[in-house]
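Hi there, hope your week has been kind to you so far. No rush at all, and the record is pasted right below.
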Amino acid sequence: SDCTTLFGPDYALLRPEFKEYREASLARRANHGIDNILINFGGGDLDNYIARVLRALLNIDILSNVTISIIFGGLSEINEEHKKLVDQFSNTITSYGMVNNMAEMLSGSDLVIGAAGSSSWERCCLGVPSIIFPVALNQSEISKQLSKCGAAIALTDEDLSNGNLELLVNQVLQSQDLAVMSKVAAKVCAGNGLSKIIGIINA
């Protein structure tokens, strides 16, 4: 009862570069379509989400000028299954392992498909629309709340096999919903949690 509690995305511990990229990233969202899709399931992908997402995207007529970026992270590997799937796309696909410029990559992305972990606050700070999957138990509530407020679209494992992901992405590609989602997401986390906490500690 005597503690100062600093909970929620207002106090998310984001690196300073996310705040630095915020203004330019939000400006990009105004009347902007989809030029780049980013797929990222954190540092590892033990349940093979990346391959399953790629397989689903193959069922959609994505314009060939839309580029796709995949961040595998340090614990994942680009295996033969990934390579075979990538070869079936007419789109330009770029793969990455670990990256140290996540803020830059997110700010240049128009839609992210990924996990509902701590990167959710990075995406919100930059106003990046996202389709998220809770890939761990501690991500379930994050996924639920972001979906509830309209900051992201939350799906489940079943949606990777029942056609829902394909249907949803197809709808998003042809709508103006991304701009609305971007504005809502940007209100969730402003990216200044670190400076807030330091200020409170110093006070």
Q: What stands out?
A: The CA atoms of residues 149 and 184 lie 8 Å apart.
